[in-house]
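Troubleshooting: if your tokenizer reports a length mismatch, compare against these two reference records.
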Amino acid sequence: SHFVDIRDAQKVKTVLNQAKPEVVFHLAAQALVRQSYLDPAQTFSTNTMGTANVLEALRLSDSVKAVVMVTTDKVSNE
């Protein structure tokens, strides 16, 4: 296991390159709805840009064969 702030693109790439995984489970997010109301910018940064950083690191990886991306049931379509 590695604990990295997914908002730090370089650290995400570094950990991925060191670990050389074949399968990645991306579950990282700020998923607390009330917290997202209190700090929407941080929630956006973590969930959107953080996921973009993970996806970019995965795109550049030559070891990854499969990725499982998980979201929340709290996503609204209103």
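Reference record two:
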Amino acid sequence: MSTNEHERVNYIDGDWKKPESGRTLSVINPADQKEIGTVHLSGKEDVKSAVETAEEAYHEWRRTPVTKRIQYLFHFKNLLEEHIDELAKVITNESGKTYKESVGEIRRGIENVENACGMPTMMQGFNNEDIATGIDEHMIRQPLGVVAAITPFNFPVMIPLWFLPYAIAAGNSFILKPSEKVPMSARYIIALLQKTDLPAGVVQLVNGDKEAVDELLENPSVKAISFVGSTAVARQIYSKGTLHGKRVQAQGGAKNMVVVLPDADLNMTTRIVVDSAFGCAGQRCLANSLAITVGDAKKPFTDAIKEKAAGLKVGYGLDKSTEMGPVITPDSRQRVEQFIETGENEGGKILVDGRGKKVENYGDGNWIYPTIMDEISPDSSLAKTEVFGPLFGLMHVDTVEDAIQLINSQSYGNMACLFTSSGAAARQFRYEANAGNIGINIGVAAPMAYYPFSGWKDSFFGDLHAQGHHAVEFYTQTKVVIERWSRDWGRTF
């Protein structure tokens, strides 16, 4: 690359370029608060340049046979596999998660690249011969044009790969605007993609903040926007994007509840729930943040999860013994601590307190240890607000019907999980719980790449989700052709 390795710049028209705005931000390692790089922020003119280049590239790219388009993805997939160790270390250093979590994230991203390689089949249309006498009718799928994704800090590789491979395999040109907190991972995957000799302008990277986002939302040449972030921002993205005539899929926040029945396997349930609640320091949209125990499950589950959470090893993510890393910024740590205080004021009882602790040799990191609060009231702000950190709450009810009612009464609908050995209870739960992703004896109900990531209610704005056939439908538009040909027209033989 022609630019300084520690600088995160844009990738436009097949080359690495500094934005014209001149604005920069430091990239900080959450484990020690040390600067590990600089990101250059794009202004409106920088984004316009990327869009113009993408639009120009699109006209040739859409004419490239789909069987040839996916060859670049096969190559990209192999490069991701070859560089998984180095890429995982980049993710850990800029996002704070453990090395194992970073590897897992990359694996889930690779699944989407693999799935998108099936685009020749996935974007097939259908037809009817003689739909009327002598008339045939066909439905075909065609790409939209220039599309963009605005992605968050917590999964800086996986979430861009929810979108990028499907978009370009379907024949679109694609612009990625990653979180300015974690630009290193995005730079890395785009640099790998560059090695495939993908035509210039088909995929581009623009770093930036709200100014860059606004230009993507307002620019008439951008036909579709994909977004993952908080509900408040997702709602704004959806409203503004659709106002400007774009397709939008906007994944919002969550308050995921897990229900524990008395017949659940206690050891398995405790281990899985702790992994879900405190994995990635609770900074994922599929983290279990509230447990609802039913009947006699209250005491054994409460005692078990208290012991398990208190014993987690917190530290720097590249230390192999670390089980949970820091939160992303000092502001995030302060926000979680404020939620703990608020929960206490609302009647919650702290069983495990993660405040005020440090990690040896990393005293300046954004540390907050696993925290468990009991007796959460259904009417409290803690029961209704996404914390996005390692704070786990406990609620207790008498029946599974009571638990389902609590789940269905909240505004979010990303995920709900049940732990039980009863098939009847499991069927009732998956039938009645109002959430788009359901887990039965699963703590993180993350769909495989060939299923949609199916958030409901305030957890999602739009009609078509990321991944699978939803991605194909989102990134293509249907065209119906009705045609009649007489045997005698144009016959010369």
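Descriptive notes for reference record two:
- The mean pLDDT is 96.
- The two ends are 60 Å apart (CA to CA).
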